[in-house]
Design brief:
Elements: E1 7-9, E2 20-21, E3 25-32, E4 41-43, H1 49-57, E5 63-66, E6 69-82, E7 86-93, H2 98-109, E8 114-126, E9 132-145, E10 155-157, H3 164-185
Amino acid sequence: MQAETGLETKFARFGDGIEVQNGHLIEGYASLFGACDQGGDVVTKGAYAASLKAIAADGRRVKMLWQHDPACPIGVWDEVREDKNGLWVKGRLLPEVAKGREAVELIAAGAIDGLSIGYRTLKAAKNDKGQRLLTELELWEVSLVTFPMLSSARVVAKSDEMPSDADTTLRDMAAALRGARASLAQR
């Protein structure tokens, strides 16, 4: 899905398992390399490298949102990195935030187990199967969602326990997500 700002998100059907440690610590893969999602996209190894480097150099963090809603941050990602399998995230849900408390309960009950990325495509190409190969992405956020586009993007562990340019980025992201919602509402 793409809105006017070029921000894309991935929504789809979910399958297995989520785990939480100490009630509020979560981790899992938000994106897997080489896996074709339900939109026909395949993320290639290294697609997040430049974005993660830029985020770290700027002293920023990838945002943790509820269902891609920029008005609903529910925690913080303490670690976001590429490994041999994909984009791995580890963070903390904030039970002091209403939606954070809800997320803890929904994950614990097994009602929510999906992770989904909000990103802008910087470089992509088509392969001989007609799939879009995403080779460079600008990562904006990783959300807990009901329906991730990549059905294998799951929280695998769960537990019990801004500068002015960032404001502009959040406004752009909010506009993109409003556009995405409007598009979904028209379907």
